[in-house]
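Below is how a single chain appears once it has passed through the pipeline. First comes the sequence as given, then the structure the pipeline wrote out for it. We keep one example in the README because the format questions we get most often are answered faster by looking than by reading.
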Amino acid sequence: MAEVAAPRGRTGVDRAAVTRWLQAYGVYAGVAVLLVFNIAFTEHFLSAANFRTQAVQVAPILIVALGMALAIGSEGIDLSVGSVMALSTSLVALYLGYGPWIALLAAVIGGAAAGLVNGSLIAYIGIQPIVATLALMVGGRGLALVLVPQLEDVRDDGMRTLGSGDLLGVPYPALIALALVLVTAFVVRRTTFGRQLLAIGDSRPAARLAGLPVRRVLILVYVCSGVLAALAGFLATARLQASDPTSLGNLMELSAITAVVVGGTPLSGGRVRIGGTVAGAVLIQLLTATLIKHDLPPSWTQIAQAVVIVLAVCAARERGKR
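Resulting structure:
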């Protein structure tokens, strides 16, 4: 019996092959297109100062996106990451008087506590991740504003060095983000926890039948997401030299979800693409910088991100149908 050819359009293009290519490499192509556009049409784009600025600004997005990738890989989501960043900056302002390390510890504990609340609601009570984390998205920023009602200066030599210093020309925030990328990739690919996370995301009922510690893994996933968001808030506070729980982390959940989904991690769970998440975060930062440098208002950045994530989800759905 003769083989049936794959469906093609009128131009002879294999739609399935194009969809697969976009899913696997579309984010890298998007980064390349933005780089070429900016090199050609954006003044001073190739300057060392600009690359430094982009590296510093992308670091919090990337760090938060790593935690979001873990949550999405477990077939969940974490909408509270922006509020956890706000809570982190409030805790830094409250505890910086005891030294930057104590402030960092307070921020990390706050992020871990937020993740523990999210994970417990999801794992033990059975609340859907989008609902549980939405509740903390609202309540977390409210708590941050109770702790620090308005913008406060954060003056500390160690914080200033962390936010604006560098090692061999590479900013400290970028180096920290890179280290966290390597750690997260190792955890996902080489540890029992990572394999259990992916198994749970692929099929939670099957994971339970296999005897996997589903509740414990889910709690750890959201604790990791909370800690990473808190670290991002700490780094952003160090860079700004100010604590602003009103605006810090605002809409960060949108940027993180976009970076993860565009990077190829499916919303249906069962897989985490760390390399794609890195490229997705870079894409979001380049897109934002491009629009700003060409005098377009910030609202266009949000519209562009919404369009990108819808296209990425549509591509993932098309692939899932085949």
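The mean pLDDT is 87.

See the next section for the split statistics.
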